[in-house]
Amino acid sequence: MRYISTRGQTAPLGFSDAVATGLAPDGGLFLPETLPDFSSELRRFAGLGYVELCFEFLRVFATDIPAETLRSIVAASYAGFPQADIAPLRRLGPRLLVLELFHGPTLAFKDFALQLLGNLYAHQCRERRETINVLGATSGDTGAAAIHGLLGKPGTGIFILYPDGRVSPLQERQMACTGAVNVFALAIGGTFDEAQAALKEIFGDQEFRTRHRLSAVNSINLVRVLAQCVYYLHAWLRLSAAEQSEVEFVVPTGNFGNVLAGWLLQQMGVPIRGFKVATNQNDILYRLLTTGEYRVCAVQPSLAPSMDIQVASNFERFLYYSLGRDPARVRAAMEAFKATGVCVFPDFDRNAFSASRCTDAEILAIIGRVYREHGYVVDPHTACAFKALDPDRVSVVLATASPAKFPETIRAATDLEPTDPSLEALKGRPVVKHKIKADAAAIRAFIEAHSV
Ligand SMILES: *Cc1c(COP(=O)(O)O)cnc(C)c1O
User: For a pocket test of ligand 1, which of 112, 142, 277, 400 has the largest count of ligand atoms closer than 8 A to its C-beta?
Assistant: First the structure.
């Protein structure tokens, strides 16, 4: 299987090279050259456990890794999930289920992809006798999950930019209290979007990028999307036949990476009825899906900080399919968007997704209501997905983070104080963070001084 860029000006790469490259050199995002069709495999997949299913799915994509090596990479990636059930599907009502994706090492769904990515990078370093420096920007959970995917892995360095003061104190501790020498938590003065812009500029500098063997870890990496397909498949296989044909997955959305994975799986022959994009008050995707216009506004910090995003970078992958897989049209759309901050998409399939948006006040009210009605505590991101659920459908809500990561918000909504032993352990450790300007030159200089 080879991987092409959405912008069509990068020669196709094999799996391992596409993963190591992250963002394509032409500025586009990698996608499989053709999508496989799993429809005739679903019966066989139904009996598999999570790790085995993940292996069976990924082997179709990672064709340049020997099967037994891939199997051990997958097994190692989910070994750090303490429960036997890696992605539990909980039933809250006859037509309402919750897919809990927060039982990994950093208690958010991003562990699913980033544990795997960390092991793939480490494999590559061993195989090629090279080092790799991973660079990412985070609005909260990505950084922690990326760091825990690479923690102490020989031959790797990891640099994570995050907006200083705009991630929760516990999220910051997960990044800055690891004690690992290959981890650098960079607290930037600015927003997530500014951090992401600086990062794009650094990745655009080919000489610097090659010299430091930089790779991206934010949600543009191909592996992020592929690894996330697996839990949709695992959950779908566990529904009854009647539910399988009716189900709508409801996805708390920021960068569009999570919901895109579900949609791609649907394109690969898994008959999922639909998807709902649930945003917080940063609602560019809600507005896009309800009006057809993609228009950037300023980010407003919210109670669901991992969704405080305006430019949803993974949307470009959906755009590629929506524009007839024509890279020239993708380039034109992205250039127009870059120049004006607005893009109108007259011809994309709006029926593919429904959408909702949720203010901070609604997040608090929903956490309280879900607790009263179901005795179940949801984190502020997951709460957004409980807005306006369609009672005529079977809804599977993706629970993207543990409520224990957001104790202040949960306390405000319910008087409860959720906790988790892994978070308690962090409280006694020193915070080691590097304050830096949201500026490509300053970040480059830091990497220059600390890369492996
Ligand atoms: C990252 C994140 C999201 C948003 O996911 P995207 O793939 O960026 O759409 C939602 N909830 C939590 C808890 C997250 O960490």
Answer: 400
Residue 255 alpha carbon, nearest atom of ligand 1: 8
Question: From the CB of 256, is ligand 1 less than 6 Å away?
Answer: yes
Report the pLDDT value the prediction gives residue 200, as an integer from 0 to 100.
85
CB of 174 sitting under 6 A from ligand 1: no
Cβ–ligand 1 distance for 358 under 6 Å, the answer: no
Q: Which three-class secondary structure string do you get for the chain?
A: CCEEECCCCCCCECHHHHHHHCCCCCCCCEEECCCCCCHHHHHHHCCCCHHHHHHHHHCCCCCCCCHHHHHHHHHHHHHCCCCCCCCCEEEEECCEEEEECCCCCCCECHHHHHHHHHHHHHHHHHHHCCCEEEEEECCCHHHHHHHHHHCCCCCEEEEEEEECCCCCHHHHHHHHCCCCCCEEEEEEECCHHHHHHHHHHHHHCHHHHHHCCEEECCCCCHHHHHHHHHHHHHHHHCCCHHHHHHEEEEEECCCCHHHHHHHHHHHCCCCCCEEEEEECCCCHHHHHHHHCEEECCCCCCCCCHHHCCCCCCCHHHHHHHHCCCCHHHHHHHHHHHHHHCEEECCCCCHHHEEEEECCHHHHHHHHHHHHHHHCCCCCHHHHHHCCCCCCCCEEEEEECECHHHCHHHHHHHHCCCCCCHHHHHHCCCCCCCEEEECCHHHHHHHHHHHCC
**Active-site amino acid positions:** 110
What is the CA(419)–ligand 1 centre distance, in A?
Answer: 20
Q: What is the pLDDT of residue 429?
A: 92
Domain ranges of the chain: 89-105+223-422
**What architecture does CATH give domain 89-105+223-422?**
3-Layer(aba) Sandwich (3.40)
Per-residue model confidence (pLDDT) at position 410: 97
21 lines ligand 1 (CB under 6 A): no
Read off the pTM: 0.93
Nearest CA to ligand 1 atom 2: 306
10-residue stretch averages of pLDDT, the chain, 452 residues long: 97 94 89 98 96 98 97 97 95 97 96 95 90 85 90 92 87 92 94 84 90 82 95 98 96 95 98 96 92 87 88 90 94 91 76 93 98 97 95 95 95 94 90 93 95 92
CA–centroid distance, residue 45 to ligand 1 (Å): 27
Question: Hey, which of 148, 253, 260 would you mutate to test ligand 1's pocket, going by the most ligand atoms within 8 Å of its Cβ?
Answer: 253
Atom number, ligand 1, closest to the C-alpha of residue 224? 7
Q: Is the CB of 307 under 6 A from ligand 1?
A: yes
